[in-house]
Predict the structure.
Amino acid sequence: MKKIALEVKNLKKRFGDKIVLRDLSFQLEKGEIMGLFGGSGTGKSVVLRSIIGLEKPDSGEILFENQNIVNSSERELLKIRTKIGYVFQNGALFDSLTIEENLAYPLEEHTQLNERQIQQKVMEMLSLVDLQNSNKLLPNELSGGMQKRAGLARAIILEPEIILFDEPTAGLDPVNTKRLLGNIMKLKEKGFTGIFVTHDIPSAFEIVDRIAILYNGVIHIMDTVENIKKSKDPLVQSFISGALGS
C-alpha cells in the first residue's frame, strides 16, 4: 500500500465569473512524480499556488501531513513552505545576491546549521545541478537555463517532502531542457515526490510516473504514462497528439 504524500479534495476556485477549478480531487503518492497537464488557462498553476498558500481556494481541502492546509495562517504557511518546495518558471532568484547566497538564504532562515555546514550544503546542491563553478555569479550573469537550475537547487536545499515544478522547461532550448531534466531525474532517483506542471509533453513522459489531465475544472483522467499513451479517450488523444505536434 503506497503512502499518500498529499491529497486534494473537491477544490473550487473562481476569478470573477470564470470558474477555474470546479471540483478538483487527486492523491499524490509518496515517491512519485505526477504530471499535471491541461491547456492554457485551465488552472494548473492555480493548483500549485493553492498548495503552498499563494492562492486561497473558495472551498475544498488540501491535506498534507494529516492537516488541511487551506485555512492555514501565514506563520503556518511559512513552515509548510519549508516542506513543499516550489520551482518557479523564471527561477525566482534574488537579483542582488550571488547564486551561493541565494541558496544559503533558506538555510540561514530555517535551520540551525553553522556557516561551514551551510557552505557545504550549498556546494553539494550546486554540484547536483552542475553549477558549482557559478557560485559567485549574480543571477543576471547566468543564462536562462542556468537560472532555472539554480532555482531548482534553492527549491530543494531544505530537502522538502514535495517539490512543485511550474513549467520548469518553458523557454529553454533542447540542450538546456535535457540538462534540467537530467537534474530532475537525479532527484527522482533519490525518492523525491513531486508535481510536474508543463506543456512540454515529451519532457514529462521522461520524468513522470502518472499523468493527470485537467479539463473543465476537474481531473478528466489520471493514469500511468503507458496507459495515457495507449488511451482511446478522444480528449486524451487530441491533447497528446496536439501537444506532440503530430
In short: The first strand starts at residue 4 and ends at 15.
